[in-house]
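Subject line: Sequence and fold of a protein, written as C-alpha cells
Enclosed: The protein record, placed directly beneath this head.
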Amino acid sequence: MRKVILNLAVSLDGFIEGPNGEYDWCLADQDYGMEEFFAHTDTLFIGRKSFDLIRADIDAFPIKNVYVFSDTIIKEAGETFHIIKQANFDTTVAQIVEQPGGDIWLFGGAELVSAFINKRMVSEMLLSIHPVILGAGKPLFKDIKSRVGLTFISQKTYDTGLLQVRYELKPWFDPDKLQFLG
C-alpha cells in the first residue's frame, strides 16, 4: 500500500496561508528536501482552491498523476489531471492507494487535509515549520473530529531557521468497537 504524505509549509503559529491568502512568507531560497521527496512521489492529491493557485504551473511539478478533489472544476482541452468528486472520495482514494506506485503527496487545502485526517487516510506528515508568526490566516488543522496520535520519525533543521518534522500517524483506536482501525 502506498503512503499518503501530507507535505506542507506552516507558520510557527500553525497557519498555511496569511490573513489575505498570501504565502509570500514561505522560504524558497533552497530546495528544502523537495528533490528527495519527489524522487519517491508520483501522485498529487490537491483541493480545488489550491489547484487554482498552481494550475498554470502544474506541468512544472515532477508528478505523473494529479488528482483534484472538486465537484465544480472543469478540465480544459490538453489538461492532464483527474477529478475526484465528493461522492466518490472514499472508494477512489482507496483504489489509488492500493495501486502500485510511489508515495502520494497530499498538498492541500485545509478542508481536504481535514477530510483526509478525519478519515484516517494520511500515513505521514512532513511539515516545514517556517520561522514566522503570522497571527492570523488559514489554520492547518480545522474541524478535526477526534484526537490523532503521532509517532515522531525525524527532524531536519536548516540554516534559515526552517524546521522540518516528520510524523507517522498512529492507527485510530475506536473504543466502542474495541479495535484499531486503519
Observations:
- The CA atoms of residues 59 and 79 lie 9 Å apart.
